[in-house]
Amino acid sequence: MKAYFLRRLLLIPLTLLGITALVFAINRMAPGGPVERALAGLLGGEGGKRTRAQGQTSLSPSQVLEVEEKKNRDRSSMRAYGEWLGVVPRDKEKIGKEFPKDSNSVEIEVPGTTFVAKIVRNGDEAAIQSPEAAGADGAPKSSAEMDRETTELARWRVRLRSPEEQKQSWDKWMGGVSLSKLPEYRAILYRPGFDGLLQGSLGSSEKYQEPVGLMILDRLPVSLYFALMDVLIIYSVCLPLGILKAIKHRTWVDNASSVAIFAGYAVPGYALGALLVVIVGARLGWLPIRGFTGDDFATLSPADQVKDLAAHTAMPLACYLIGSFAFMTMLMKNNLMDNLSADYVRTATAKGVSYPRAVFHHAFRNSIIPIATTFGENLALVVAGSVLVERVFDIDGFGMLQFTAVIDRDEPVMLGVLFFAAALTAIGKIFSDLLVAFFDPRVSYK
User: Fold this and answer.
1) pTM of the model
2) CATH 1.10.3720.10 correct for 212-439
3) d(CA 180, CA 323)
């Protein structure tokens, strides 16, 4: 069994690699990405589209390349994925500038400093020139200032983009608009560094410029709360209800509970949420209609914080749970009924074992095995969320984070949340197998 679970654990990195690579490739190939959106904004929306359709544009190659570099689309997809993984260095900072006509040098201000880097081109190669001893005003620089500038410039690298490469980028993003002439060489001043998944970083959001890891951690308490409450309520209600339905099969208790749970299963969570917001929240005013907590949550006492949290999450929890009761309840009922009709239970009762003991001591343990297979998968509830429910109640959870990342084509956020969700799902499935082996001694995984 140890060898089986060890193999399963070793397969997790390969699984995550395949999932993230597939989503990364699809995102890069799909039209309507961040570069297209930024260029459409510069062109003025529909007016810009008509202008491009006529083969004209007011944009220069330099503007298009600046957008491409800002959105980190100036490298190949393979290279970009390697940077996200952290196996190749990425450009932590970069700035580009075109060489003046008939000149082999260009000056670029180093981001975050007062220094200016002079880039000298020699054919298709370029280098950063050593700092000059005199400043722009002709006054000599001190040795300390020279040392600081030399140290700072040593952290930076430069690469060239030839006119032909720039034309390829132009044709890629501005299809239908031809260049009247090739641009000059372009120098890219960049500061390289390893900053990927292997270094514990999920990158930064292209839209909000915040670390993806911090964005996930900010929403983790919301997701953990709903996930734990979902699991606690579902198992504490559905298991006893399923046992009761199996014992009282075809009685009014069984029929009434079936009508109730299947009616709830038929109602979408977001529809129930809208109804609760209008009636319970707006008209009756019993519960708050938006947010995870109140605006004054931090100033409340612990007891009042619990009340505030319960009041704000009562309606969202009802929407999350309404469709989950039917599956778990009926799974428990059907499994228990199958085991109650098995030969070993009939034999036990024939030998004088009481019916309650036959149910809970003999049949229940075997009936819980299929339930155990679903427990580990509930780890994925931490990042599942519900976009529509969170939208209705204005809760900034994982559902909204994933939704906005897809809508905005925010690649680092998409990949970060996907990696987190896929890792939890894979671990959850292994945990489910462990629970099955624990409850069922016949399972050995050899």
Assistant:
1) 0.83
2) yes
3) 61
